[in-house]
Hints:
Blueprint lengths: L13 E9 L3 E6 L4 E6 L20 E10 L4 E5 L5 H28 L3 H13 L5 H11 L10 H14 L5 E10 L5 H12 L4 E7 L2 E8 L2 H21 L3 E7 L1
Parallel strand pairs: 3-5
Antiparallel strand pairs: 1-2, 1-4, 2-3, 4-5, 6-8, 6-9, 7-8
Amino acid sequence: MLYRRNGLPEESELVLCTVTKVQYDSVFASLDEYDKTGMIHISEISPGRIRNIRDFVKEGKVIVCKVLRVNLERGHIDLSLRRVTEMQKRQKMNEMKQEQKAEKILEGVANSLKIKTSDLYSQIKNKIFEHYSYFHECFNDIVEKNVSLEGFGIDKKIAKQITDDVKEKIKVREVEIKGELKLESYSNNGVEIVKEALSKAKNPGVEITYSGSGKYRMIVKAKEYKDAEKTLHKSVENAISYIESKKGTGEFSRIE
Length: 256
């Protein structure tokens, strides 16, 4: 990736890393966004006792870590792998995938303009980063809010080519989370109770379909993962709380 940040990361920041060296009690990894190296102590790899650190990390593996401490004088960065939740990991990986897609669009623009991708990137990055943290955030706003790149001081010809390519290749953002909800009622009016529980789960952006044996497939769509996760949690909690109040049972499992 061309994307790089200046300076050092902040404490508690989530960073994309590539494992470079594995020792018996620690792991070294490059921070892909900063061109820096950090260290993960074995106690920050995973909860519980670790018999073999290589069961969790290997050289070349891409991981998401949380920054624990930054020594500004020495430039040392302490990282944690175990303190990153699955949701945070998905969000960060999706963020970087979106940035890679944005860079691919810039590569196409550069080819059309007959210039190097790195030269185009260098020419416009500071103007974009005055307003956004990532190119893909800017590109999404071009599609969703008609943001004008000329307003950022970018050359008219370049701005038009980027805008045209972005609108051709990026559609309105939408993330999707899938899961399976299982509901069971042992009451005489169990069918009505299950129907009512499902009605409690229905929210904007939630699709529910019957998949057999008391199981229901749920699909939640939203513009951001955090919004989708929030909606999913609310829907599942409403359904399970209701059916349990009627002496039934409910459980939910994620589908990747």
